[in-house]
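Researcher: Structure prediction, please.
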Amino acid sequence: MPLVPVQRLTSQTTNVVAADTRAGAVTALLAGSAPNVVNVGNAPTIWPQPSKFDNDNTVLAAAPDPQFVWTQNAFIPGETHGFAAASVTIPLTIGVVNDFLIALTVFADNAVTARIQAFSPLSLSLFPVPGLDVDLQAGSLNPITGITTDVANPYNWQKTRFYSIPASLGLISVALSVTFVFSFQVTNYLTNGAINTAGLSFAADIYQNTLL
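Model: Predicted structure follows.
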């Protein structure tokens, strides 16, 4: 079965739901809450900017570059928020093993824990998928880290994280579909410096094995 692109999901004010916690953002997203984040742009003008190649000629290139999103335009040292966004609804094929490949790239100022989950839109139930529904850690979420251990180059906010995983939903015997939910807990560190910005940016590419 060939591997075909399904979607490139990027952080946008039109698709990200925020809450106090990652789990809360997921719950709100699945309940139909409207996106409620703002685009803070490259707030300090020195963040690494996740961007597609200038000559990207794949079908996924139609997706816009990720925005830097946050809950508000003012940044509060030590604050932490949860964020979540969902893929399109993807029909599954009956009688075959439904396999996917997911590639995730994430930037956060300062630290982030990410999670990928698979849900059935029919009942909002979770698909148990080996390798998914685990915390992907990028720095400590403790805000005091900014004045204790994350005090030298390269700082957490200078790093872009990437993660790729095959995801198999197994043999499907009834008509179902799947939605992949990408969620994040982001902490803005306390700092001794004069500038203390916060933001989250991500891109997730989803591929599916399909019948010829």
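Model: The longest strand covers residues 97-109.
Researcher: Thanks, that helps.
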